[in-house]
Design brief:
By secondary structure, the chain is α/β, with parallel strands linked by helices. It contains four helices and five strands, in the order H-E-H-E-H-E-E-H-E. It is 36% helix and 17% strand.
């Protein structure tokens, strides 16, 4: 649902079902196919969780924006969050996520097209 909602709003989306798959994509990204915004669920229970994915994305590219999604955002330890990353409480509507992404894009002066991993 998240990917199709973002596509409806005009975003280019790379969607994964497992954190390990998202980790592989982050590691394989190149300058020409860079992931600019990572939307990650902190409730994921996989070989790499949402918090680890966010940290990895920032290590690989410090300019990567991160958006956390969580049932209980207040339970995410501040020490494990990457700086400047907003958190959406799940469930959320597609327009809410699009608004957060647009806010990040506008605050960083980013270009027109963004690639998102949801």
């Amino acid at each position: 649902m998240t990917a199709s909602s973002l596509e409806t709003f005009g975003f280019a989306v790379i969607a994964t079902r497992r954190a390990g798959e998202a980790e592989r994509l982050l590691r394989e990204q190149t300058t020409g196919s860079r992931i600019d915004i990572l939307v990650t669920d902190t409730d994921v229970r996989d070989s790499a969780d949402g918090l680890s994915l966010a940290a990895l994305a920032r290590r690989l590219n410090p300019k990567t924006h991160v958006i956390y999604a969580a049932r209980f955002p207040h339970t995410i330890p501040a020490a494990k969050r990457v700086s400047g990353a907003p958190c959406l409480r799940t469930p959320y509507a597609g327009h809410q996520l699009a608004a957060v992404i647009n806010g990040l894009r506008n605050s960083s002066g980013a270009g027109e097209e963004k690639r998102d991993a949801a």
